[in-house]
Protein 1
Amino acid sequence: MIGRTTDAGSYRYRVSVDPLDVTQFDSLFNFRDVGGPTGHDGRIVRSGRLFRSDTPHRLAGADRTAFAAFGVRTVLDLRRPYEVDRDGRIPDFAGLTWRHIHPEHADWAENPYQPGADLARYLADRYADLAATGTAGLAAAIGLIADETNAPLLVHCVAGKDRTGIVCGLTLAVLGVSDADIAADYALSTAGGERFRAWFATTGKTLHPSLPPLRCPEEAMLLFLTELRDRYGTVEGYLRHAGVTDAQVAALRDHLLA
C-alpha cells in the first residue's frame, strides 16, 4: 500500500494514501488505519489490517462506496446494547460479519465530568474502571482481533475514542508500540470529536450533559497504561488476567506486525 509519513506531535507514523483519507467521509468522523507505528524488533504495524472509527451506522451513498474500498471483513462493535438498539448496526456489506462485544462498565452518568476538572485524570480513571469490570469483553475483543481470518477488521464504539481507544491501545501495547506513539494515535480522536460535534450541531439534538469534552489528551492514555502496569506488571499481564491466551498474543503479533 502506498503511504506517506505524517507528524502528529512527537509521533511520526505511516498513513495510507490509497484508497481514502479520513476527511473524505461525510458521515464517519473518526476513521483511521491503526497501522504504521513501530513495534517489537523494529517491525512495523501492518496497514490495512486493523481500522478504528466512530459508529458506522450512518454509512450511505458515496460514503458506503468509499468504506467498501477498504475491504473490511469483520466489524467489532463495542457499544452498549441500548446504543445498538438506538442507532442501529453498520449497513450490510457482502462478506462482512458484525460482532457485538460489550465490555461491561458503569455508565459515565454515574460519575459525570465536572467542568474545570483535570480531563486527563478523569478519563484515565474511567478507563481504569472499564479495565476492571470489562475484562471478559476486552479479552474477547483482543481475541477477535488476534484471529487473522477476521482481518481486515474495524473496531468502533459511539465516538471511537474511549472504548475503541482502550482496545486499540491494548492491542498496540502488546505489539510493542511505545506508549508515546499509542498516546499520539489516541489524541488524533480529538479532531474526530470536533468533526462529530460540528455535524451533531446540525441535527438539532444536544449531547448528554454528563459527557466530558470530546477531547483526547495524550496524558489520559499515558496515565492509563502506566497505572495498568503498576497493577499488573505489564499490559500482557493484564490481558492474561483478563483471559487472553499466549497463543492469541502470538497470533496478534504474527499477523499485525510486518
Protein 2
Amino acid sequence: MTSLSWLLLAAAGLSLVAASCDKSLLPELTFTLNGANLAWPCTSTRNIYASSGRYVSRNIIATRVQIFKDEAIVATPRYKPGVPFTLGKLSLKSKDHQAVLSPFPCWSLQEEGNCQALQSVVDLFLDPQDILWVLDVGIVNTLDQPIRRCPPKIVAINVKTGKVVKVIDLSGLVCSASRLQYLVVDYAEDGRVFIYVSDAATRAIIVFDVTAGRGFRVVLPKAVTDGCLRRDVLYLALIRKPCGTTVLYFTYLSSGRLFSIKTAHLRRGSARGTVVDVGPKPTNLVILGTDGGTALFFRYKGDSEIYLWNTETCFKEENFMLVQQAGECRLATQVVPGYKRLMWVLESNFQDYIQNTVGCAGASVSLHPLVKGCE
C-alpha cells in the first residue's frame, strides 16, 4: 500500500490490517453470516415461522452494514419470502465466528404487513449523533413476485437505546415508477439534518430537510444517464472535504462517468449547472463507501478487488490504490469504518443468491476488516 493511502486512513483515525503475510487479526475478526444462525425467542417461535413459510433460511442475505462500538447492524432485505426480520445485529466481540443475528431493535418492529414496522430495509446510515437512519422501501419479495406492503419510509433509531425517534413517510416524494436504493445523512453547518436518497428509476435524488420536516426531489441532468442501457443502480457516497464542505458523489452502475454535487446546492433544490462531471470510469464500478472523510472505496463490476480513491486527487486510474486483493467467490457490497478503528468489509455471493444457485445453507456472507493480501 502506498504511504498516501495510509495517511488518508490515519487522518480519519482508521487503518487497514497490515499488508503483510501475518494476517492474525483477520481470522479473529472474521464473521460468517447466514440465515441458519438467528436468535429466536424460543424454539416454538422458530417452528411456527418455519411451518408457515415466514422463515426460509436460504432466502436471508445481509447486504448493508453500519458499525456502532462493538456491534454490527445489518440490513437483510426481504428480496424473497421467509425473511423473519429485515434489520439485525451481531456482536463483534463474539468468539463464535458463525455470527448469531438478532432482530434490531426488537421483534415487534419487524412484522411484515404492519406499516408501523419495517418491511424491507435496503440501506442504513449511522450519523455522528448515534442515530441510525433506515431506508425501508415497503416492497417485499422483490426478486420473486414483488408485493407493496406499505409506503416507503425512513426510520430513525437511537442505537444507544433502540428507540425509534422519527419516522419519515416518503410516499409524497415518490411515484409508482420510483426505485429507492441508497441513502446518506448530512449535517449542515447550522446543525440542520438532511437526508439524500437515490431514486434510480426516475433519475432523481430525494432531499429531505429533517429539521424543517419537508422534502423535495432534485431531477439530475440527462447527461447522468448517457450511455446507460437502463437506469440500473444509482450509487451515492458522501465525502467530507478538509474544509468541512460535503460533496455527494453519484453514478449509475452502467454509466461511463462519475458525477458530484456540493450538498449546499442540493439543499437549495437545484441541479442545473451545479453537477460536476468528475470524469470517465475505466469500466462499470460499484461504490462501496467512504472513510467518513475524503477516501472513497469501490470495486469494478464482477471483480472482488477493492480500491481506494482520494477524492482530493484527479479521478484517474493512477490514483486508484488497491487495498484488498481478490479473495474467494464473494463480492463486497459495503466498506465502513468501525470497531477497533478499522475499515470493515461486508461481502457475499450475492450473484448466486439472485440466480437462486445457493445451497441449503443459503448465501455466503462475511464481515471482516479490510485487508490487503500478501505481495
Protein 3
Amino acid sequence: MSSLPPWLQQLLPILILLAAIALVIARLPKVELGHTEAFKRRRFFNWFPLGMTYAFLYMGRYNLNEATSALKGYTSNADFGTIFFWGTLTYGCSFLLNGPLTDKLGGRKTILISAAGSSVCNMLMGAVVYGVLTNGWQPPGGLVATLSFLYALNMYFQSFGAVSIVKVNASWFHVKERGQLGGVFGILISLGVYFAYDWSRFIAKAAPTWWVFFVPAAILALFVVLDFFVIRDTPGHTGHPDFDTADASSGESGPQLAPKDVFLKMIRNPVIVTILSIEFCSGFMRNAIMQWYPKFAKATGIGESFVAANWGMLLCVAGITGGMFAGLISDRVFDSRRGPVSAVLYAGMSLGAVASLFLLHSWMLGWAVIFMSLCVIGVHGMLSGTASMDFGGKKNAGLAVGIIDGAVYAGTALQSLLLGKILPSGEEAKAAANWSNWPIALVPLSFVGLLLATRVWNARPQSKAAPVAQVPAAASTAPQDSSRTGTQG
C-alpha cells in the first residue's frame, strides 16, 4: 500500500469494509415483501444520490472544525465553540419550521433547498476567509461574529437534510426493511464525517484555507442538478405502485393534520418523548467526541498518532460498522425493534466514557473514543434515521425526524457551549491533565442515555387499527399487528 497515493491509502479500508458488508448482506436471508426487481433498482437510484447528498452536507457542516484549526491565530477553541454553538442552536430550532414544511412540500424539494442553500453559505464563508487571509479584511463585527452568522444560516439549510432523507425513504421502505436502512443511514453519516475531516484536512494542507469551504460548495451544487432529475418522493411518482409501509401512518385516512396538532400528538406519546431524551444525550456525546478529540490531539502534541492522523477514516469505519451492526440486529434479532439496539450501544458508550477517565494520558484514549463513536453513530442511525419513520409514519415523517433531530442538536449546542468554556486554550491546552473536564462531561450523559434506552426496549410503531403506543412501567407497547403489512410491486 505504500506505493498508493495517501488519499487512496485512507479510502481503501473504507472501500474494503463496504465491499465486505455488501457481501454479508447479499448472503443473508431476504425479507420478502413482494417488491419486484425493477422496483428495487429504481429505489436504489432514488436513495443513493439522496444519501450521498446527505453525506456531502455533512462535509459542508463539519468542515468548520478543520477550517478553524487551519486559521490558527485567527480563532481559538473558545471561538470554535461559539461558532459551532450558534450553528447547532439554529439547527435544533429549525425543525419547528422545516419539519412541517418538508411534510407539505415533500422531501425531494427540500433536499434541493438544503443542498443549494448550504452550497451558497459555504461559498460565502470561503469568501470571508479569503478576504481575511489575503487582504487583511475585517468583516463587520469581526471574524467570529461573521462566521457565526453564516454558519448558523448554513445550519438552517442543513436542517432540511435528515428531514428530507427520512421523508422520502419513508414511502419507499417497509417497517421490516428499515433496520437495515438505518444501518445505511449510519454509513452515510460516516462517509460524511470522513469527507468532513480527512478530505477537509487534505484540502487545508494542499490549498489555501478557503478551499475547505469552496470544495463542498461545488460538490453540493453538482448534487442539486443530479437530485433534480433523479429523486422522486414516492414509488407512484416513478410508475411503481405505492404500498402500505406498516408504520404509524398505516391505515390513516383523511386530510393531513395541522402541524400543531401533529406536534402535540407526538410529544404526548411517551415513546417519542423518551426517544427525544435519548437523542439529546446522543447529540451531546457524538459531538463532544467528534469535535473535540482532534482539538485535544493537536493541542497535546499527539497529532501524528495513528488515530489522530487518520481520524476521519477511522470514524468512517467505526460508524459504518456500528450502523450496520445496529441495523442488522434490529431487523434480524430484535424483530425490527429499535430500543434494544440503542440500549446495547449505549452500554458500550458508557464503558468507553468510564475508560476515558483513566486513559487521558494514554495512546489508548484514541481507540476508546473511536469505539464510542461506533456506538453513538449506530444509535443515531436507529433513532433519527429509522424510529422517526416508524413512529412518525410516512405522513408525518418530516415533523417526526425534525423533532428528534432537533433534540440531537439541542444536546450538541449544550456540549459546544459547555466544553468551549471549560476546556483549555492556548498554552494550557498543551497539557493533557488540563483536559480532564472533557471525559468527566461524557460519563453522566452516557449513563442517562443507557437508562432511557432500556425504557423503550419493547416499543413498536402502531397502525391506526391498534391502540396508541404507551410506555408503562415495563416500558413496552402492544405488538404490531403483522397482518397489516401488505405490499405491492
Protein 4
Amino acid sequence: MFATKTFAEFIRHYLVVKTHTSVKKNGVYSSYKDYFISNGLSSEQALADLFKFASYYDQILNHKSADDRFNKILEHINVMDSKVVFPYLMLLMDLVHTAKINQEEAIQLAHILESYLFRSKACQTPTNRLNKIVVGLCDLSKEGGNLRLRLLRLLKANFPDDRKLLESLMEVDLYKQGNHLAKLSLVILEEHKTRETINFDDAQVEHIMPQRLNAEWRLQVANADKVKEQYGGTLGNLTLTKYNQEMSNKPYSEKKEFYKDSNVSLTREVAETYNQWGKEAIIDRTKELTDELIQIFPMPNIKEVNEEEITGEYTIDQPVNVTGKAPVQITINENEYPVKTWKQMLKIFLNDLWNRDSLNYDWIKEHDQISRMLFRPHNAPATLENGTVIETNFSASVILAIITKISEICDITDQVSYTVK
C-alpha cells in the first residue's frame, strides 16, 4: 500500500495521465501494479518517470513552476480545491518539458480550464462529470492531437456563458459558497486592477452592508433586512480590507471615510463611486465587478467546435447532436465495446449492466417511463443475454437519452462514454 494520502493521490493522478482511465481511490496500488507490468517497465524507468511527474505535482500543489503566469492559474485552481484537474495540468507541464507545446500554449489551455472552473463554481453548476472530462483530455490521440479543440469540445456543453454568470452573481450568496470563492473573486479583481500580488491569507472579506444590521442601517436603507437577506452575500456587497473588526457594523457614512484611505483599490472605489449604500448600489456594483470577471475569465470561442465536426469520444451526459452520425464504441467502466449501430449500443450497455449488477434492473423497472419504453416491446424487439426482450425502435438521440437516464439511476454516469464517427 502507498504510505501517505498525498502520495497515493499523486499516483492516482499520474495513472490518469498515463492510462487515460479513471482510478478508484481504493484501487491505486493494484492499478499501478497493472500499469507497471503491462508496460514492461524496469524499476529504474518507473522511478525516473515517477520522480519527474512528482516534481510537476509538487509545483502544482505549491504553485511554484518556472512561470509566474502559470503559477497564478495554479494558485487559483488550488484555492478552488479542484484537484481533479491535476492530471491535465501535469500533462501540460510534461508537454512543455518535452517541447511538444510551448509555455504560452500551456498557459492558454490552463486558463480556459481555470475560467471553466471559476464560472462553474460561481454558477453552482454540477462538476460531477469533470473527472471523466479530465480522463478524456489526457488522451492525446483524440482530435488528432489538437489540444485546444479537445478541451473546448469536452467543456462546451456545460461552460456557463456571460449571461448565466451575471444572473448567478446577482443572486448567489458568494460569501457562503465553499472554496473561498468570494475572497478569491475579490483578490483576483484587485490583482487585475493593480497588477500587484495580494497576500490571499492576509486579506479579509468585508460586508459593506454588515451581516448584523443595527438601527442606523435600518433607518438609512429602505427595507434593510430584506435587502441584506437578498443581496448581503452577493459580490457587489463585498470588498477587501485589513481592518474588518474595526469596521464592524458602522453606518456607511463612517465606513466610507475608512474606505477612502484603504490601500485596496477595490475598496477605495466604493467610497469614490457611491455616496449612499443600499439595494441599487449593490446591484450596480455587482454588474460592474461581474463585467470585469467576464474579461478576466472569458468565455472561449466555442464556435471553433462546429456541429459538422462532431466525431470522437463523448461522456454519456454530454449534449451532442448525433443525427447522421454512427457509433463506433461504447466504454463502460473502462471496458471498451466496438459497435456499429445505436441499437447494438443499447443492447451492449444493458447486457453489461446486467452482468455487473442484476439489481440495477430492479431500479430501472421502477422508473415508469424507462420501463414503458424498454420492457414493453412491440415494433423492434431484441433479446438480451439474460433472456429479457426489449424494444429497440428508437432514434439515436432517444437511445442516448435512455442510456443517460439509466446511468443516472444506477449512479454510473462518470463511467460511461461513447465514440462516434
